[in-house]
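$ fold --in a.seq
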Amino acid sequence: LRAFFSDGADPNHLTAAIRDYLAGLSALGFPVPGEPTATQLLEEAWEHAWRQAFTPRAVGERLLIAPPWEIPSPTDGRRLVVIEPGRAFGTGNHASTLGCLTLLEVCLKRRPAAGALDIGTGTGILAIAAAVLGVPTVTALDTDPDAVTAARGNVVRNGLGGRIDCRLESPEDLLGPPTSLILANLLAHTHRALGAHYGRLSAPGAHLILGGILSEERQEVVAAMAAHEFVHLETFEQEGWASLLLGRACRQAGGPPLIDTWENFT
């Protein structure tokens, strides 16, 4: 257990108080391994130190994700996506975000989308990438006000204010026509809970890209989505995380799904 205290705290007092507490635990019969130690930290600009881990990164064949404090000139025809994380999730460095971005590029390369819905947008990185890759209009939802604020700022940074609508709203409350592409980098249990809404909000033949899934949870998420007529098309796995690309089955009245693989997907 590691705790941080202000530089005005007395380290001798802290360690003495912890020893008293551990002695009480020992008297109650609990094992007490080790001794408490206090160490002074070096003076650093901790609020800015995290930036060292967020550097420009090429993703897939066409994207270049970069922070606003280090914007390179895109090369090899890559499209630049500028992201300031703020207090939201999504820099493109985590395996789940990387997987969603990779599958998004694969998906749009094979078939463009007329519109997209990004559920749990965080920094807005997936919504912005979709727009940069050619999706004309994107709706980005989040229930966290800090995330919506961060996403709106990033939309402006990328000059996409007229194409991306960031809303403080949940998918359960969203009304409107179904879309041809849904993006959701959440967690496996949330995907299972939202399966019916993914189905309600997607048009027949639409694509669904899901992230935030541990590799061992992949099959159960695929099975849960199959109950809502989504067919598994492709998986991207890295560092124990899986991202999924699925297609919404097209059905004739009373008939079987008309798609089951990329080759049959029309």
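$ fold --in b.seq
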Amino acid sequence: MNKAIFLWGTKEEVQARADADVPSFRLCREGSGLAPVEVPFVAPGTRTLRTIRRGGRAVATVYEDDEALYLLAAGVQPADLAAPRGAQATSVFEELESILAEERLTFANVVRTWLYIDNVCDWYGEFNAARSAFFTTRHVFETFLPASTGIGHSNPFGAALMAGFVALLPKDGKAGAEIVKSPLQADAMTYKSSFSRAAEMRAAFG
């Protein structure tokens, strides 16, 4: 799999994003000599409440507006980078869960996940089994099965998986989320893959 470098702006601008104190996905090709690329989440029109950290790094931001509380996470990695890949996958979902718990949320509040999986074709079955097992124990299949994007990409930490999500806690009946079916694709659950094809979030920002 081609592990391309994704760059926006000059090398100085990329380095500035790498040094910024914002939750982000950090992508680069190993040995490139370039700074990891930051992809920060921005929620226009909302109030930033606080930042959540793991290992000294900002990994999530809590926003709110009059309609909802939003939790946006990125760049979350497993607790043990030396663990087997399947264990790293479980660890990442546990880390995501702990971030949600800080705001008294659960995976039932997660609308979408982003999963950056190193050498994804080599172990997708193992990853999917770990995700399905986690979702089963947390009753995710019985609540809201989040949409998801899986991207094959390495990271500068050497983690088998890095992840993020957007979660939503409505304050009234205006904000919310619903699963959207694809008219051209089978439900991913028919081949035992644990995600919804799409999800639509009704919110004030963006």
